[in-house]
Fold:
Amino acid sequence: MRTQTLVKTDRPRSARECCPPGAACELESWCVSRGMPAGVASSFATGWHSNRYTRGNVLFYQGNEPFALFFICSGRVKLVRAEDGGRHQIVRIIRAPNFLGERSLVAGEPYAATAEVMDEARICVIDSARFFRAWADRPELARMIARQLAAKLGEMEAHATDLSMRTIRERLAKHLCVESDVASKRNLFDLSETRQEIAELLGTSPEVISRAISELEQKKLIEVSGRRVRVLDEKRLRRVARLPSANRAV
Structure:
């Protein structure tokens, strides 16, 4: 078991102290958007600490006992599971805003994967003792966590289905569609993952990913330059991914 070290890039600061000047607390606002009463959300948002992290920082290691609940205010974190023989796979990428580590904390089980920061991120953390005091005092918190766990379970089931029933090209097309949907400029975005990371997420090798990208380029569905991807034919790309047509705002 690896020694747990929570990387800190500056002194611990409260969740509200790290929010942009004049802006609402992101953690508090997100909890309200998930159905938690405003007063309960405000109380729950106290006692957290916020830090900034860089790519490669590890929040917790696979096999270690859970010690805190994390909330990703900005950035992304990948969960990497290692197997015997040195093999590892990205089982999930969690984007802000979202909780991290709640399953192991609530279940009282060791972390099933290592949480590694993928890019510049701001993350709030509350220790397990404070969390469980809030859990005992506020049934609204338990209900919200239950809904979050149910939603994530559904996402993991969908991912497992993709790995077993979609081809590599279909998985890659779906990944590109998702990236395009969340990009600030629709149909033009930079892949923040390396080919190795995409391969680990989609359950294949970097060489296979490179071939699949070339196939999509040859069919004039996408255009790739370095990490920049331009979607040339969104309808056909979504058809390859077996996704419904996107609803665009007029």
About this structure: Residues 7-12 have pLDDT under 50 and may be disordered. The domain at 13-156 is CATH 2.60.120.10 (Jelly Rolls). The CA atoms of residues 32 and 240 lie 37 Å apart.
